[in-house]
Amino acid sequence: MRVELKGEAREVVLAEAQSVLAMARDDEVRGRLGELVAAAEEGTVDGDAAELLESVLELGLQAGRIRAYYGPGGEQAALATLRKLPRGRERAESAREVSTALQALVGKSLEGVAIAAVAPGVFTVSLNADGFETSVRLDASGVRLASVGT
């Protein structure tokens, strides 16, 4: 997996990686972060650096740091970069798959909707339409059908 970093995305990735590097105390982690910084400076991230980049971006986005420091444009650039990386691509694919499956509900009468907080950052959305029941689970790893039945 090779990701090209250009423009604002490159700037955000480089600044975030440098920021995390400045806080790191473990020599092994510092070495990996140094490799990520070097790759971001060159504008191409792959291999272990891409995996580490996912973690750096996820942390910065979840904490709100990226939006706070780089504004909405920086946040969008970080999100676009994250969607190119493996976990981001997996989340996007799972969302497409669930959306396709939920097309079975189009045109049906909605009889009930419920959202349940299962755990921190984990939710289920239950839908009942014309006797067709489905439950969708949403968490950090993506979205997936939890149950389907009548």
Q: Can you tell me about this structure?
A:
The protein is an alpha+beta fold and 150 residues long. It folds into two domains: 2-84, no CATH class; 94-149, no CATH class. It has five helices and six strands; from the N terminus they run E-H-H-E-H-H-H-E-E-E-E. The chain has helices spanning 7-23, 27-42, 47-62, 65-84, 86-102; strands at residues 2-4, 44-46, 110-119, 122-129, 132-139, 142-149. It has a four-stranded antiparallel β-sheet with strand order 3-4-5-6, covered by helices on one side. Helix 1 packs antiparallel against helix 2 and helix 1 crosses helix 4. 18% of the residues are buried.
Features:
alpha+beta; 2 domains; four-stranded antiparallel beta sheet; 5 helices; 6 strands; 150 residues
